[in-house]
TrEMBL record:
EC nos: 4.2.2.29
Source organism of this protein record: Lederbergia citri
GO cellular component terms given for this protein: plasma membrane
Lineage: Bacteria, Bacillati, Bacillota, Bacilli, Bacillales
Transmembrane region(s): 21-41
Domain of life: Bacteria
Gene behind this protein: mltG
UniProt protein name: Endolytic murein transglycosylase
Site, Important for catalytic activity: residue positions: 250
Keyword Transmembrane annotated: yes
Catalytically driven reaction(s): a peptidoglycan chain = a peptidoglycan chain with N-acetyl-1,6-anhydromuramyl-[peptide] at the reducing end + a peptidoglycan chain with N-acetylglucosamine at the non-reducing end
Role: Functions as a peptidoglycan terminase that cleaves nascent peptidoglycan strands endolytically to terminate their elongation.
Length: 368
């Protein structure tokens, strides 16, 4: 009996130890899960990448719920967790999010994102804005970019022509940067692809890569708007931007780009060379107030006086108005146009005889 009692005491002692160990393990497990959960939530409330100021275009559809907005922002990489975003904005009493197109960054806090969606405006002020006017060429754009980064215009232009740079960008933007830009006769592969606009930047010295990325993203966005028309007309992105660049360089403030577009298409339909002076100047690589007869003889595929059809590629960066006109020329029989000396008023004609008469009236006589 004494032995049985001792044995039962030993068993009870062992059982108590086992229960204590199991309880301790359970407490540690709960604590561990809580610690992990705390860190997970804490991480999800922080910016995805505090150092990444690259803007991402996000469209919030009309009628979007907080849940769907959270999922969309997570999908676009703007936040880490859509569910936590949902409960966070509820806890902070954020409401009245507005539908629309936004440009958000991974460096933004949840408060900044929520405030932006609520007001429809970016919470942070841009450190600087860079405006690229319509009609500029690569070398001119390089001069503007050089004012904001630690690179000279020559270094920027060289980098933008670098085969490795082009190869990398073609992988990032396969919809717009195709093998067409690799044509050996093209002066600058990215000519015509850096969209003219005003860009906002949120870091003092952005990289050239981030600036170019902004511009190519905008080009891709604009071109995508006309994808169905391009498909209908069987027109490639390269052809579209090339035609648009000719219209851009020929158009004055008073010009109807759709009429200019019609002249170019009418000429091509009749097998006539486009004969547009800006292509000659591009071939020469210089700006001149007047194109001389000797200039028209320059041997270059860009010279549309001696080569029919479009040049190898764009000769400048066109704005959306010229891009739209390149796809939708006016229905005319015009084959010629000229800008009136002094006023910029554009006059159109159907025959060479009419054109010469207008030239005499609006250019020669006015110059004299």
């Amino acid at each position: 009996m004494r032995n049985n009692l001792i044995e039962r005491r030993n068993e009870a002692r062992i059982i108590r130890r086992i229960v204590a160990i199991i309880t301790l393990i359970a407490l540690l497990a709960v604590g561990g899960v809580g610690f992990i959960g705390y860190n997970y939530v804490k991480s999800a409330l922080e910016p995805v990448d505090p150092n990444n100021n690259k803007q991402v275009a996000v469209e919030i559809p009309i009628g979007s719920s907080t849940t769907s907005i959270g999922k969309l922002l997570q999908k676009e990489g703007i936040i880490k967790n859509g569910t936590i975003f949902k409960y966070y904005v509820k806890f902070k009493n954020f409401s009245g999010f507005q539908a629309g197109n936004y440009k958000l960054t991974q460096s933004m806090t949840l408060d900044e994102i929520a405030e932006t969606l609520k007001t429809g405006k970016l919470v942070r002020e841009a450190l600087f804005k860079m405006t690229i006017p319509e009609g500029l060429q690569i070398n001119q754009i390089a001069i503007i970019i050089a004012k904001h980064i630690d690179m000279s215009p020559e270094e920027i232009a060289k980098k933008l022509d670098d085969p490795e740079t082009i190869k990398k960008l073609m992988k990032q933007y396969p919809e717009i940067l195709t093998d067409d830009i690799l044509n050996k006769n093209i002066k600058h592969p990215l000519e015509g692809y850096l969209f003219p606009a005003t860009y906002s930047f949120y870091e003092e010295k952005p990289s050239l890569e981030s600036i170019v990325d902004e511009m190519l993203s905008q080009t891709q966005k604009i071109v995508k708007n006309y994808s169905s028309t391009m498909e209908e007309k069987k027109m490639s992105v390269h052809e579209l931007l090339t035609m648009a660049s000719l219209i851009e360089k020929e158009a004055t403030e008073k010009a109807d780009r759709h009429n200019i577009s019609s002249v170019f298409y009418n000429r091509m339909d009749q097998g006539m060379p486009l004969q547009t002076d800006p292509t000659v100047l591009y071939a020469l690589g210089k700006h001149k107030d007047r194109t001389l007869l000797e200039d028209l003889k320059v041997e270059s595929l860009y010279n549309t006086y001696i080569h029919e059809g479009l040049p190898p590629g764009p000769i400048a960066n066109a704005g959306e108005t010229s891009i739209e006109a390149a796809l939708n020329p006016a229905d005319t029989e015009y084959l010629y146009f000229l800008a009136e000396y002094g006023t910029g008023e554009v006059h159109y004609s159907k025959t060479l005889q009419e054109h010469n008469a207008l030239k005499e009236k609006y250019i020669t006589n006015k110059r004299d």
